[in-house]
């Protein structure tokens, strides 16, 4: 990688949060960045106690493109500190593929993307298995070259909101969004920025390996939050910080209102929030009593302003949960209401099935009656056709009988002619043929004429 001093503007700034990262994770992550095929990459580390690692000091001395800032200074001086083309938020337990950044950067630059959603692989540290997650969830994005948050908002509020995306630096500065340095704030950062651009792309070639350690609650928590409770691992004894999650959802809500796009997104937003709440509640966390109080307080706070929107937009399962929370004063009341609602819905479902069966039987009977009527009409039609055919046959038979009778009469007359005297006298002519008969008749006539002529002359001579 080219040292930072040899160029004025980095291509990518990687913002690296070193919280809760062991030394072995940290080293693999840094090596994957320093050995990238893409040049001109800088690392912005958020300062905490981990930066005192001896190996980390070695990286500071060897690479000049590594910078360290405390969280407050980075948040308030982001526009001055970062001047790269794109920024990437990375957790130090993960590591990049060798050509991952180069491919993602070139794709973003060539298509002038404000946000590039990157695919990734999951590495299961305990088993050593590698998987390519969420192929089905992101299959719809493969067919889109460039799209807006509005184009895929039905996916946006359901998809895992991990942080492995490239964001154009100038785009983020123009929005004046607060840089997310914790996992939950990355959810609102992704949603809010996605809703403000039509230049979003999808990179289906993995950018990095996301390390998952099933034995580490902190990593499970990370996977749980980044996957937004739609996917991922969740332990029953895991505690969860609801304050940061609720702050994140209020952040999204206020941002959409400020930008004037709340109304066109409220259906997706409220169903997204209460789907997450339901799944958190059903996971049976160790601090479920505290979780109930947080959710109850949230519902109480949004009741006065957003109650009508919630009632009109929430799906039935989310609306039931919302109403149950409002009616409950404790988690035990909620469990009773939830169970009661479940039984009511179950009975309604059975009644619905019975009604559907009855309707089906009624429809089948109606169809059968209609089919019988149609069949009767068709039978009558074919019977009429058969009757018409019989009538025609009878008429033809009568005509045939009459013709036979006429033919017999004709035969009888022919027989009479054949036995007549004239027929016998003209037999010779019939034998020599018509043409010859004419010649013979002409010859005979001529001879008769000649004889008569001679006789007349002789008679006149005698008279003289």
Automatic annotation (TrEMBL):
The keyword Mitochondrion does not apply. Residues 354-399 form a coiled coil. InterPro entries: Nucleotide-diphossugar_trans (IPR029044). It comes from Methanobrevibacter gottschalkii DSM 11977. It comes from the Archaea. The chain crosses the membrane at residues 438-463. Keywords: Coiled coil, Membrane, Transmembrane, Transmembrane helix. The keyword Membrane applies. This is Glycosyl transferase family 2.
């Amino acid at each position: 990688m080219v040292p930072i001093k040899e160029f004025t503007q980095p291509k990518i700034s990687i913002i690296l949060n070193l919280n809760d990262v062991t030394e072995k994770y940290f080293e693999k992550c840094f090596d994957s960045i320093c050995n990238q095929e893409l040049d001109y990459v800088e690392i912005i580390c958020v300062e905490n106690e981990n930066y005192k690692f001896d190996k980390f000091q070695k990286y500071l001395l060897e690479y000049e493109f590594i910078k360290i800032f405390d969280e407050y200074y980075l948040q308030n001086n982001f526009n001055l500190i970062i001047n790269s083309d794109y920024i990437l938020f990375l957790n130090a337990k993960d590591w990049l593929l060798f050509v991952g950044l180069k491919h993602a950067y070139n794709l973003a630059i060539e298509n002038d993307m404000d946000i590039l959603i990157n695919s990734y692989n999951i590495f299961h540290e305990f088993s050593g298995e590698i998987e390519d997650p969420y192929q089905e969830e992101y299959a719809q994005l493969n067919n889109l070259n460039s799209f807006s948050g509005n184009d895929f908002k039905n996916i946006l509020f359901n998809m895992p909101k991990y942080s492995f995306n490239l964001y154009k630096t100038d785009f983020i500065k123009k929005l004046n969004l607060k840089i997310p340095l914790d996992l939950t704030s990355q959810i609102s950062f992704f949603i809010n920025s996605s809703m403000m651009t039509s230049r979003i792309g999808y990179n289906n070639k993995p950018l990095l390996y996301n390390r998952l350690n099933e034995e580490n609650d902190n990593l499970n928590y990370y996977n749980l939050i980044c996957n937004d409770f739609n996917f991922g691992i969740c332990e029953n004894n895991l505690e969860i910080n609801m304050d940061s999650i609720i702050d994140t959802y209020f952040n999204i809500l206020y941002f959409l209102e400020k930008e004037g796009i709340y109304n066109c997104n409220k259906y997706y937003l409220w169903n997204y929030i209460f789907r997450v709440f339901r799944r958190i509640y059903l996971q049976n966390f160790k601090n479920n009593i505290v979780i109930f109080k947080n959710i109850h307080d949230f519902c109480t706070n949004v009741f006065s302003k957003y109650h009508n929107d919630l009632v009109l937009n929430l799906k039935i399962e989310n609306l039931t949960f919302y109403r149950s929370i409002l009616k409950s004063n404790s988690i035990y009341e909620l469990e009773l209401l939830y169970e009661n609602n479940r039984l009511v819905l179950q009975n309604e479902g059975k009644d619905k099935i019975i009604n559907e069966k009855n309707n089906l039987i009624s429809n089948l009977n109606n169809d059968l009656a209609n089919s019988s009527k149609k069949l009767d009409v068709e039978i009558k039609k074919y019977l009429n056709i058969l009757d018409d055919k019989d009538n025609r046959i009878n008429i033809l038979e009568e005509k045939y009988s009459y013709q036979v009778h006429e033919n017999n009469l004709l035969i009888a007359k022919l027989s009479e002619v054949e036995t007549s005297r004239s027929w016998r006298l003209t037999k010779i002519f019939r034998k020599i043929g018509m043409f010859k008969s004419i010649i013979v008749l002409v010859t005979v006539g001529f001879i008769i004429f000649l004889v008569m002529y001679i006789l007349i002359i002789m008679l006149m001579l005698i008279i003289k």
